[in-house]
Structure formats: structure tokens, C-alpha cells
Amino acid sequence: MVQLDWSNLKFGYIPTNYNVRCYYRNGKWGEIEVSSETTINIHMAATCLHYGQEAFEGLKAHGCKDGKVRIFRMRANAERLQSTCRGILMPEVPTELFEEMVTKVVKLNREFVPPYGHDASLYIRPLLIGTSAQVGVHPASEYLFIIFVTPVGPYFKGGFASSNYVIIREYDRAAPLGTGRYKVGGNYAASLAANKIAHDKGYSCEFYLDAKEKKYIDECGAANFFGIKNNTYITPKSSSVLPSITNNSLQQIARDMGMKVEVRPIPEVELSTFEEAGACGTAAVISPIEKIDDLENGKSYVISKDGKPGPWSTKLYNHLRKIQLGEEPDVHNWVTVLD
After folding, report:
1. Mean pLDDT of the chain
2. What's the fold here for domain 6-152?
């Protein structure tokens, strides 16, 4: 085991021993390669650099009480990456190859998996890029699929604690018929300016409305939104929103707990009716929302009156975390267990 301050890890990059790589050439995927290099040698005209042929995923492995390591929903990540590949014309990474590479890179870096009892995990970052030279706007003929890992702490400094958001109308993360449903770097580049504005104003993150009408809720920064009222878990239906694996998992857990689930357009004005709300994603799992300010219209939607996470958000968060840690039965077969 490496000597790290597991209790004070940031959500950042710490070097580990190995990454795994696989090249796509001549119409087929090659063999898995193990590398200790942290850099990539690519052509200056590679399509990933010029035309955004780049996709990535994010998932986690957890050190558990029984001494085993559990990887959460890697098949769902493989399937989402395949959807992105179809959206921006890259060769799909087969599920079997994806799972083999994820498992291999975690085992190779086992000593970097934070031990049980710390609010930390091993973050797994699969990355697919177009590498062949192309000056015209066309898909590449060669690609590199690489997976690296790094131990991380909570995404937000306070961990599972309420945060404040601000509605930003000057920027859109994605358009209704654009690439918002795919996990590509351009969507995140489009969020940087709005994110900085939110931080400069003292908020944890920006809050997006739909790009077409500025009427319906889209996302909380790079995370999905959900609201809870009347025993119902409600989350936006939007073609601009990335299908969050965490959100999908929370919806299923909500059903398991006897809640109703609605996936539908949510008008901004409905924010005033929610008993609880949160942002959800791989990094934070759930970040409960205390309030959302609409500075342009002088409104403040106070979700949490006492500033604390609500009871349903707490139950959902704890149950999902316990599944990830092997403390609750994995009835939906979401977890891959490594001895």
C-alpha cells in the first residue's frame, strides 16, 4: 500500500503506476498494452486536436470492508461510451474489451485504491481519441483507447453537504440537437466560462436552463438534476442532458424504496415546489441543493430551509454508497467484485 493521506485527498490527479492502452488500426482493435508512461505521442493533425473526436468516461472502484475491491457499473459506462462513439463517428469499444481493460488497470494499481473507511475512491478515466492526421473535416482512421486511474477524495470539499447554485443564461452547455447527450470534451469546455462566473459570484456551480426557450431545467453544471416532492423523484427529460449512470441508479433505488419516478420536462418555476433537490453524478454521487438563485429575475428558490440534506436525498445517497461498498445486497448486479 502506498503512503497517502487517504482522509485528505482532493478530487485531482495523483500519479499511479500503470495505465492500459489499445489501438484501433486497419479497421480493428489491437492487443491491450500496459504502460507506465503518462504522456501520449500523437500527430499534430490528429482529429482529436482539431475536430473534437474525443470521448471519455468516469467510474469508480472502492476499497471495501471485506478487503475486496468493487467497481460500480462498468458495463453501463461501456454502453454509454458506445453511444458517444456512434454520435461522433468513432469505432465502438466492445464491451468485453472495455471491461477487461478496466479490470486490468484497477488490478495493476491495487495499492492506490483508498482503503475502506475513508471518503475516497479510485477514479477510473477511460479516454478515446482520434489519432490519425486529417486536415479535412472527416473522421480519423486510427484511434487510441487509454484508461488511467487516480485516487480521489470528495468532489466538493464538504462532501455530502448542501450547495448553492446560480442560473446562468448567457451560456449554454449544449443545444437540443447537439452533443449534450454524449460525453465529449467540447461539452465541458463550453461550461468553463459559466462555471467561472458562478464561482466568482460565490456559488458552488452554475445551473443551466434549456438552450431553446430558457424555460426548462437542463443540468447543474456537469451533473444531472433531480427534485423530490410528494414521494416522487423527478428528473429532466432533455436531449441536451448526458444520461447519468448515477441518476439512472438513483431512479432505480427510488423505485425500490417505493417512490414514484418521473422523467419529464421541468419548468424553472417548478423549483419553488420541490421539497428536496440535488445534483448527481459519478464524482459526488449526490450534491444536495440548498438554494438556486435566479439573479436576472431577482428570484431565489430555497430548497433546503435548514441548509441540510433532505431525508430522501440522504436515504438515496447512503443506499447507493452501501451498494458500492458491498454493504447492501447488489440486487441489480451493478458491481464487479475483485478479490
Report:
1. 97
2. D-amino Acid Aminotransferase; Chain A, domain 1 (3.30.470)
